[in-house]
Amino acid sequence: MAICGHKLSLCGLILSVWGIIQLSLMGIFYYIRSVALFEDVPGLEHEGTFDSIQKFYDDADQGYLQNAYNCWIAACLYIITLAFSGHQFWVNSRSSLRV
Amino acid sequence: MGSLFRSEEMTLCQLFLQSEAAYACVSELGELGLVQFRDLNPDVNAFQRKFVNEVRRCDEMERKLRYLEKEIKKDGIPMLDTGENPEAPQPREMIDLEATFEKLENELREVNQNAEALKRNFLELTELKQILRKTQVFFDEHEGGVNPTESMTRALISDDSIARQGNLGSVQLGFVAGVILRERIPAFERMLWRACRGNVFLRQAEIETPLEDPSTSDQVFKSVFIIFFQGDQLKTRVKKICEGFRATLYPCPEAPADRREMAMGVMTRIEDLNTVLGQTQDHRHRVLVAAAKNIKNWFVKVRKIKAIYHTLNLFNLDVTQKCLIAECWVPVLDIENIQLALRRGTERSGSSVPPILNRMETCEDPPTYNHTNKFTSAFQALIDSYGIASYREMNPAPYTIITFPFLFAIMFGDAGHGLLMTLFGLWMILKEKPLAAKKIDSEIWNIFFGGRYIIFLMGAFSMYTGMMYNDIFSKSFNIFGSAWKIHYNSSVIYDEIEMTLNPSTSDYSGSPYTFGLDPVWQLSKNKIIFQNAYKMKISIIFGVLHMLFGVVLGLFNHMYFKDKIKIICEFIPQLIFLCFLFLYMVLLMFIKWLMYYPTDDKDKITYSPHCAPSILISFINMVLFKEPNKVEDCADYMYNGEMGIERFLVVIAVICVPWMLLAKPIYIMRNQKKSNYMVSHEQMNAATENGDAEQPAHNNTVHRVEGGHGSHAEEDLGELFIHQGIHTIEYVLGSVSHTASYLRLWALSLAHAQLSEVLWQMVLSKGLKVQGFEGGIALYIIFSIWASLTVAILVLMEGLSAFLHTLRLHWVEFQSKFYSGIGHGFQPFSFETILDSAATQTADE
Fold first, then answer.
1. Cα dist. B715→B346, B709, B710, B721, B823 in Å?
2. What ipTM goes with this model?
3. Which of A13, A21, A23, A39 to mutate to test the interface with B (most CBs of B within 10 A)?
4. Between 20 and 30 A from B359 (CA), which of B167, B479, B526, B563?
C-alpha cells in the first residue's frame, strides 16, 4: 500500500539514515559528557550565580543523561521512519516496475 | 596522448578522397570525431551544393520517423533504447530504409484514416442510439399511446388552441432530432426562440457519457435535442439554424414501432463496428510496436547519413570529377589514427586508390583542442566558459583541479557539510553509468551531474578544512585533548559569568593542539576575534601565492612563444612588483607569527602582544614612507634595518611601473625606425638605378616590414602605447585590488561558520533543551527541520555562493595574470556530438 510517493519516501530514507547516525552519535557524546555540547544541555539556565557547585554538577549530569536518552529516543523514531519509508520505497519501485 | 598543459598541436590538412570512397571515409572519420572540416565553398548557397538531393531525402526520412515517433508516443508504447550505435549504412541501404519508412508511413496513415472513418461512423451511431433513447422519453411523457401524430398535437397545443385552430383543419406538427455540443445549447435555444418567434418547441437531454471526437480524439460532452414545429417554412428555418450551430440531425421515425426497429438495427451495427474498430486498433498497435523496436536505431542511421552528406557538401570537387578535396584541422598526434580510419573506409568501399592526406602550411590561427576525459572535462568547461584558450597557450585547467576545490574549501570549511557534499558527489560518481543512461532532462540535474567530480573534490577538501577549523556542523571535536586547562578558583566562577582564556598564563600548556584549531575556542567568547586574525592572514597568503603562480605561468607562455621582449619588459617587472610589495607583506606575517608570543614577563615585553605591530598598518607605512607610531617599551621595527630594506623594495617596485609601461613600446619603436632606415636606404639605391622611386618604394616597404618583424611593426605606435598603458594600469591596480579581493576567502568562511552556528542554536538547540522524555519526540521533529535547512541553506545556497566566489577568484584574480583566452574551439565532425545535440533538441520539443 503506497502512501508516500517515490520522492517523499526517498527523502524520508535519506533523512532517517542521517538522523540515525547523527543522533545516536550525539547520544553517545552526551552520555560521555562532551563539553562541546554543553551549551545545549537543558536545566542550566540560571540567572547570575549558582546555589552551590554540587547542585550545578548534579543538574549538569542530569541534563547530559537526559539529552543522551532523548537523542537515542529520536534515533529510534528515525529507525521506525527508516523502516516505513524503506517499505514505501520498495512498494513504489515494485509498482513502477510492474507498469 | 596530448597533455592538458597546452592545447593539442593542430595542423591544416588537405584530404583527397576518391568519389566512391568518400562516403565510407567520412563515415569512419565521423565515428572517430577528430577532424574539423572547413567549408570550401562558402559562397555557394545550400541548394546549389552537390549532395542537396541526398540531404533532402534524409530530411524526408527524418520527417517520417518523427511522424512515427509521434504516433508511438500517442499510444504510449515504450521505445526500445538499447544505446547501441549502428554504423552509418551504405548509401545503397538508404533506398531500403526509404522504402521501409515509406511503407510504414503509408500503412500508418491508411490505418489512421480508416480508424477515423470508423470512429466517425461509430460516433454517428452512438449519437443516433442516444437520440432514439432520449426522444423515447419525450414521446413517452406526453404519450396518450394511440397515434403519435395525435399525441403530439395534444401534447404541444392545449385543447382550447386546438378548438381555436379547429376551423383551419388538422395541423401536422413536424419535428427534427439531433445532437449538439453541450456548451452551445443556451445560444442555440435563444436563437431558435428569436428566429422562429417562439413558435417552436425545444426539448433537450444531456448525454451522460462523453463522446470522442474522431478528428481531434478529444472527449466532448453533447446533448440530444428535439424540436417540434409547425409548417415547412419553420422547418427550413430550424434546419438552417441547426446547420449554423453545427448540430447533427438524424432521421427519427415517427412511429414507435419504427423507432424500436431502428434502435435494434443501430445496436447491431454498433456491435459490428466495435469489433472492426478493435481489429483496426490492434493492427495499428502491431505496426507501431514493430516500429518502436527499431525507431531509435533508424534515427541514428538517418542522422548519420545526413551528417555525412552535409559534410560532403563542404568539399570541393576535383576538375576531373573523380575525387573530392577537403581541408580539415587535425590534431598532429592523431594523424596516425586518422590515416587508419581512412584506410578502413577505403577498404570498406572496395576502392583501390588510397586517400591522400597531406599537411598544409597556413597563417591562420588553428583551433584550440584540449584532450579531456570525464574527470578533466568539467574543469576544462569552467575555464572555457571564461574564454577558450588561444592556440597553444598555457591551459589553467590542470592547476584549477586542485586550486578550485581548495579555495572553495577555505570558504566552505565545515566537515559536516563537506561530508554531505562528498557523499552526494561520490554517489553520482559510483552510479555514473546508470545515471548517465537515464538521460534525465532536468537542466539543474545535468549541471550537478556534469560537475560530479568537482562536487566530490570540493566536498573532500571542505572536510579537510573543516577539520582544520575544527567545525562539524559548527561543533568542535576534542580528539587529541585540548592544550588548555582551567585554573580558576571557585570564587571567580561564582562571581563572573564570562571568562576569557589567557594564553600568557599557565592555562595554556604551550604545546599546541595536534591538528587544527583547539576545540576550546568553540566555547570561548573571543573565538571570532581569534579566528579572524588567523583566517584573514591565511587568505592573503594563499591569495598572493595564487597570483604569483599565475604570473609565473605567464613566464612559461612567453618562453613557449619565444617572446623575449615580453619576458624582459613584462614578466620580470611584474614578478618584482608582486614579490617586493605583496610577497614581502606575507613574509612580515610569518615574521610576526614567529617573533611574538603571549607573555606577561616585563623583560620580554618587546616580544609581547603589546608590541606586535599591525601588519596592515606597517605595510601602509612602508608604501607611504611613513615612520611607524612610537609605542612605549617597544622597538620601532620588527628587525634591524627594516626601514632601509622596505624603502629599497618600494623604490624598486615603483621603478617597475614605468618599466612595464614604456620598455616594450620604446623597444619596438626603435626597431621599427632601424628597419625603416635600412629599407629606405636600399630603395634609394634601387631608385637611382631604375629612375622611378615612388612606386616600388611603397611596395617594398610594406613587403619587407611584413616579412621581417611580424605583425608588431604594422600596429600603430599610439595604439601600442595605449595598449601597454592599459595593461600596466590593470596589473598595478589589479595586484592591489586583487590582494584585497582574496579577503573574500576569510569573509565567506566567517559567514559560513556563523550561519551554521546560528542554525544550530536557533533550531536544533531548541529541540535539545526540552526537558524530560518529551524531548525525544521534539528532537525527532526539530532534527528533520534542522537537517533540511542545513541542506537547503548551508550546503546548497552557501555552497553556490562559495562556488561563485571561487570561480571569480579563478577567472579574474588568477587568470588575468597570464591567460588571454581569445582562441576558438575545435569542433570536430563527430557523430557522437551530432546525435547528442539531436537528442536534446527532440527532448526540448
1. 49, 11, 10, 10, 20
2. 0.93
3. A39
4. B563
